[in-house]
UniProtKB/TrEMBL annotation:
InterPro entries registered for this protein in UniProt: FANCC
Protein name per UniProt: FANCC protein
PANTHER family from the UniProt entry: FANCONI ANEMIA GROUP C PROTEIN, FANCONI ANEMIA GROUP C PROTEIN FANCC
Coiled coil: none
Organism whose genome encodes this protein: Setophaga kirtlandii
Gene: Fancc
GO biological process: cellular response to oxidative stress; interstrand cross-link repair; nucleotide-excision repair
Gene Ontology, cellular component aspect: Fanconi anaemia nuclear complex
Any Pfam family hit: Fanconi_C
Amino acid sequence: MAQDTTVPKLNFEYWLDKAIEWGQATTLESQKDVCLHLPQLQEFLHQLYETIKHLGPTVAIQQFPLIGQLLGRLCWNPFVIGYDESQKTLMWCLCCLYSSEPQNAVELKANSWIRSLLCHLLSSSKWESNEAETSTFISALGYTSADYYCHLVKNMVVSLVTELRENQCNGLNIQESISASRVNAISIFCVPLITLPDLTPLLETLLLYHGGSSKEILSSEFLEAVNEAFLKKKISLPESTVFSLWLRHLPSLEKATLHLLDQLFSIHLNSLEEVARVIKDSLLPQAASHPAIFRIVNEIFKNALVETDGTPEVMTIIQVFIRLFLQAYQNENKQYKFPLKAYFPYHHQPLVRSLVRHPFELPTTYWSQHVKRISDILKAIVEDTNVSSLTDLFEIWFLVACFREWLDIATEQLLKAAVEPDPVLWLLAFYYCPRNENQQRTQTMVGAQAVYNHLMTLFSCRDLSLEDLEAAVHRVTGVEQCCNQQLTTHLLTNFLLFSSGGHKIAQECIYHITEVTDTSKEVYSLLIRTAYRFNHSGEENQRTVKLMNELLQKFTLKV
């Protein structure tokens, strides 16, 4: 038997020949030869793992086509898997070959083969000498092999969970402390097995585990795999565990946020209740109770709004997310609640406090007063000479846009003559035209004032026709450009919803406006926001609610 143990690095042919020669080490001669080569074999396996861990299954197999045959033979050699860390390294190598998203039958079969080898390695122990003894032992316990492996995995999970939790409690005891490398190795081992229900307690413990190191000790592959499985609803985790995952791994939080946006864009949403359900199910509003998560998610939404040129769909998503976040924030234990400034650190706090007040927290008789307060605070900030950069102006505008329900209420109060018009018109002019370069905002307000004055002369009329609104419609269609089209559409749509005679011509007028101005998405967004507010405010105006529902049904087919 050859005694030379000087082996070239990653010499697959040499080690494959040895593995074939050794078999399962059933003879004395083969056992001696295995023992002579174990240190070099372990070094080889470690080098192999370091080489393939970043390649991915397909590239690894292309680069090392004999790797499956080699690992498969070594996994069945009791002397190899019983030596030092060889068993663990074999598991690591197998995990590198596992396809998280198999694309064909070959990859599915390879995954099945890897799982069977992992189960075999997990069920192997140093006292086992051959398969016959193991089978006899399992039968004596009254188990089938499948039951035995299932119980073995559960016991292994319980053992690791206990070890990690005890170490967390005794973190200051150096002798009992688990090394960061061991915790990292456990997380890597979990990657191909993440969707196994029996593994969930270990996943939870790992994600809540914090060692003494300032660096992340869990492998990025593990964190990404858990997040992917959670987003695809392949696993279920407690909220606290998911929050811990997103706090310790920023890419997972970013992916979860983008996944939510993709999910909302891929379906047609007929109501804010439906939007709220999808967003709430994502757990992002609840997780945003931690300021770090809130600021990151908010920044992603802000970038999405910029990239889509302020599309109404994104704006609606942001508005609903903010309200759900505030609900979760208010439900937080006061002892552990962060101040609002932690979430909006760079904004004028009196404005923040005014905007975050939910309209339903106030009697409707106080709405006009609150709207005026928001407008006065905002105007003082915007017209301050310190707000000179476009970035600062955009940040202020985005804050107001997050709480758009106050603009809807302001418009309704304006048309019902329940509020002083100038502050509301300025607020609307700022929202639709935040920049005042070349007096743009000032001109927008002048145009809005003209539209408002015209609409108010018709507000009490019970018999209206489209021709009666022609002057306002002309402003929308661009005959008079001094007023922003979207602002005028906002005013006119609210007029049709809340005026005495607007109901009769609402459908005809809104269709005419949206066809000539391409504002159907803005109108639809306004309708579902108003319907949501009415459905949750307890207001008794059944005619308006019925009209909005009819318009929404027709717009669902058109938008």
